[in-house]
Amino acid sequence: MGVAAVPGSGKTATLSYLAAQLLAETELADGQEILIVTLVNSAVANFARQVNEYIRDDGLLPGYGYRVRTLHSLANDIVRQKPTVAGLDEQFSIVDERESNEILAAAVDAWVRRFPEAADDYLGPDYVEKGFYRTQKWAEILVDTARNFIKQAKDDLLGPDDALAALERYPGDLPLAQICARIYQDYDQALAYRGAVDFQDLIRLALGVLQKDGDFLAALQQKWVYILEDEAQDSSRLQEDILRLLAGERGNWVRVGDPNQAIFETFTTADPKYLREFISAPGVVGRELPNSGRSARSIQRLANRLIEWSLEHPHHAIRERTPLTPPYIQPTPPGDPQPNPPDDPAAVRLEGESYSATKEAMLVTDSCGHWLEAHPDQTAAILVARNGRGSEIVKFLRQKGIPYVENLNSTSTTRAVVGALARALGYLADPKQAAKLAEVYRVWRRDERESPELVAEIKTVADGLKRIKQVEDLVAPRLSDWLDEALPAETYGELRGQMSEFRDLVGSWLRAAEMPIDQLVLTIAGDIFHDVTDIATAHAAALHLAQLGESHPLMRLPDFAAELYDIAGNRRRFAGLGDDAAQFDPDAHKGKVTVTTLHKAKGLEWDRVYLISVNNYDFPSADPNDSFIGEKWFIRDDLNLSAEALAQLAALRDGSAYNEGFASLAARIDYAAERLRLLFVGITRARRALTITWNTGRGNATEATPLLALRAWWEAERTESLAHEPQR
Q1: Is the separation of the CB atoms in 263 and 678 below 8 Å?
Q2: Which of 133, 198, 410, 643 has its CA 20 to 30 A from that of 583?
Q3: What are the Cα distances from residue 297, in Å, to 343, 428, 466?
Q4: Cα dist. 13→8, 51, 62, 415, 539 in Å?
Q5: pLDDT value of residue 101
């Protein structure tokens, strides 16, 4: 059975209830289980909790008779049971995303050093002679390009040797594929040297085990007589193939998902078309879950209009891509236990006015603050397209004293603590840099930033530290003492004493720099943090770096500092004290505004939602003036190198022709289609009230085409509705 479910229809609850009903009414043989497969780890516990609640009412034993797995953990279970069939040593390891990225970056760096001139074929004419773009920027984009190439090659069951052999046979020239295949070869060899596989390998190898070992497959088919799959819109072809084999010709396989909420597909191997094709395939019972009690009727009508508009999209290629399709969202029927909130069309606002990014942030945070004051028992969220924009919004909320909670990569409090530690480690890794010493001084006086007078003093001293010609003149004076010159005791007695204390502190850190990284971090934390939460977060950071050091014995202080800088910059996931890694619950934060990305908001809901930055940069429609994140300004001819590399891989696989530039144009269409689905997800997070705004970005962004269309429709609807209201 394939089920297309709309947002808020209760997909998880429905599957959980089905599992509980099967457990209560079906006689499973000894060793048989119901297998529940979902997308992310946070959903595993949620499924188990709901199933247990249902079966407890029937007097059944919680946790017995079913198994909940993510697709990757299921693949890991399969490969772990038959490592030799998969061609692996029994003690094989799995590299996480971070280590995989490091291995890939090293392979790319080695390749770039061997072939520095290769960048010239793809850089724009203004950047060919600039070393920064020929090395660092080229390497950065090549990492992303090679990563996408390797993922797709593994999904196509092509190893690096297979790809290189195909290149030898191909009649034309595929330079990007040649580059990526060589990097793939180095990456694969590095994994083999470690006796390891990556997450993408797990899926490929699990499928291979099932195909090679018929007895093992039959045993699993006998064990898992019912397979229930959630979030099926995010499955790849190989993941679908694994579940199809496990279900077998006579098995029971229920797939539930919403193709309109497929928002993780850009340059991944997943595609919502697989679920759509499954639902309409012969022998599959197709069903819909169209009723949703989440949102007020006006919000549902707006979401449905976006579906209708996408089917009439002015760009033919996007229309053909069918980014959004029925079923349309319907309200719950009378008597349903989850009735829709009362409808108030005035609570839906689509702002057409052009704002700067700063003005938009000010207006939205002000509005949200006033609304929370009037509705302290309800929930609110500001949804952003990128983590960086979320961090900017948090700064405004903090300045205005509006209570908030973050659901970003990490919270601002965590980032501030980690940033302070990063600056300290950064100085210790390069102790002759006066600018880094000045940053450490700011960190040391971080608790005094509330006073304008002290802020001015801190800035003055820090600026003076930046100008020290020899840092040793302060930290370890011999022939001359910087304090005597800059802060003579007769004039700056109190500050002079304070700076002497700072010198002693830095000296103690320099002497401790040879300690194990976790002990060093805890030593620094003990000197600069006084808040219990900050100290706890520092402990978490110390543990994180210690574990990192065990996995990467060659890491040194600059590497540890770089890791903390990535966390502080919201580029790396990290959970400090208070950062909940489990499923986020908006109802636990009533009276506060949640700041979260649209991707993290999926599956969540709030009473009031502000959807911001809906411009033609974050939500492009392949119009001539739109910008695309995948197209870098320093790459010639607006090429999207990841898209071009995948097109060359497809040419290798199929023996088809390759024409440069076509794939970049197609990538615009795919990206625009996915961003339409992301906009749909944002709209359907709102229960009672919704506000959508846009900003000009760096000055040249315009209102996103779908927002313009929705706004025109909504204004016409409101005008017609008001015209039919009885006159008083």
Answers
A1: yes
A2: 198
A3: 6, 59, 60
A4: 10, 9, 16, 35, 38
A5: 86
Question: Would you say the C-alpha torsion 224, 227, 228, 230 has a positive or negative sign?
Answer: positive
Lowest mean pLDDT among 170-174, 309-313, 442-446, 666-670: 442-446
Residue 460 buriedness (CB in 10 A; 0-12 / 13-18 / 19+): exposed
Among 501, 496, 497, smallest CA distance to 485 is for 496
* Long-range CB pairs of 469-472, under 8 A, 24+ apart, other chains included: 469/434, 471/431, 471/432, 471/433, 471/434, 471/437, 472/432
Query: Exposed, middle or buried, 215 (CB in 10 Å: 0-12/13-18/19+)?
Result: exposed
pLDDT at residue number 397 = 94
401 or 466, which is more confident = 401
The overall average pLDDT reported for the chain is 89
Q: What is the 3-state secondary structure (H, E, C) of 194-251?
A: HCEECHHHHHHHHHHHHHHCHHHHHHHHHHEEEEEECCHHHCEHHHHHHHHHHHCCCC
Residues facing 384 on adjacent strands: 597
Each as own residue / partner, the long-range contacts of residues 12-18 (CB below 8 Å, 24 or more positions apart, any chain) are 12/43, 12/46, 12/47, 12/50, 12/230, 13/50, 14/256, 14/289, 15/47, 15/228, 15/230, 15/254, 15/256, 16/47, 16/50, 16/51, 16/54, 17/50, 17/54, 18/228, 18/254
Q: Is the pTM of this model over 0.85?
A: no
Instruction: Give Cα separations from 453 to 456, 459, 495 (angstroms).
Output: 5, 10, 13
Amino acid type, 290: P
The DSSP code sequence of 564-592 is HHHHHTT-S----TT---S---GGGGTTS
Angle at which helices 434-444 and 493-512 pack, to 10 degrees?
110
Peptide bond preceding 272 in cis form (omega within 30 of 0):
no
Residue 591, pLDDT score: 94
First to last CA, the chain: 54
Distance CA 551, CA 98 (A): 11
Neighbours of 431 (CB within 10 A): 17
DSSP summary character for residue 28: P
Helical axes 160-169 vs 175-194, angle rounded to 10°: 160
Q: For the chain, what is the total number of helices (H) and then of strands (E)?
A: 29, 14
Give the mean pLDDT of 646-666.
95
**Paired residues of 349 in beta bridges:** 691
Tokens 């906009």 correspond to: 679
pLDDT exceeds 80 at position 551: no
Residue 577 confidence class, pLDDT cut points 50, 70, 90: very low
* Tokens at 7, concatenated: 């947002």
Neighbours of 543 (CB within 10 A): 13
Euclidean distance between CA atoms 421 and 521, whole angstroms: 7
For the record, the structure tokens of 327 come out as 């079923």
Map residue 432 onto helix, strand or coil: coil
Give the whole-angstrom CA distance, residue 604 versus residue 596.
Answer: 10
Comparison of pLDDT for 654 and 96, the residue scoring more: 654
Task: Report strand pairing: 93-94 vs 2-5.
Answer: unpaired
For helices 160-169 and 641-654, the axis angle rounded to 10 degrees is 70
pLDDT for res 485: 74
